[in-house]
Amino acid sequence: MGKDKKASGSGSKGGKDAGKDAGKDAGKAAKGAQSINVRHILCEKHGKKEEALAKIRDGADFGAVAREYSEDKARTGGSLGWKQKGTLDPEFEKVAFALETSSTGSPKIGEAKTPFGYHIIMVEGKK
């Protein structure tokens, strides 16, 4: 029985270390989220992306800024809809899956540079 307690004690200690790693992973993949409801603003030029970021930081609605600044097909407020893990550009995906969910009125944003250009990203849902 003492052996089991010792094993449990080691497991607990390992559990603390595992917890630290799990915390890092949770931030990256939202505790195993496999799909996200994502919006973005795509700008070819860094300066245009910075202008869009400034508007968002000043309190402008993400969707409105996306309609004005985004240079891709996601002109409906930047919505890309639900995307599965593994279907997006790796740099975009790394940032998007690490983001907390938020709303267009108060977005929690991330940025990524891909071969398509500069992205401002927000996530509305995860599953």
Automatic annotation (TrEMBL):
Disordered, as annotated region: 1-32
Tagged with keyword Isomerase: yes
Ranges of compositional bias, category Basic and acidic residues: 14-28
Protein name: Peptidyl-prolyl cis-trans isomerase
Organism superkingdom: Eukaryota
Catalytic activity: [protein]-peptidylproline (omega=180) = [protein]-peptidylproline (omega=0)
GO process terms (BP): rRNA processing
Database matches in InterPro entries: PIN4 (IPR043323), PPIase_dom_sf (IPR046357), PPIase_PpiC (IPR000297)
SUPFAM superfamilies given in the database record: FKBP-like
Molecular function via GO: DNA binding; peptidyl-prolyl cis-trans isomerase activity
Keywords tagged on the record: Isomerase, Rotamase
Lineage: Eukaryota, Fungi, Dikarya, Ascomycota, Pezizomycotina
Enzyme Commission identifier(s): 5.2.1.8
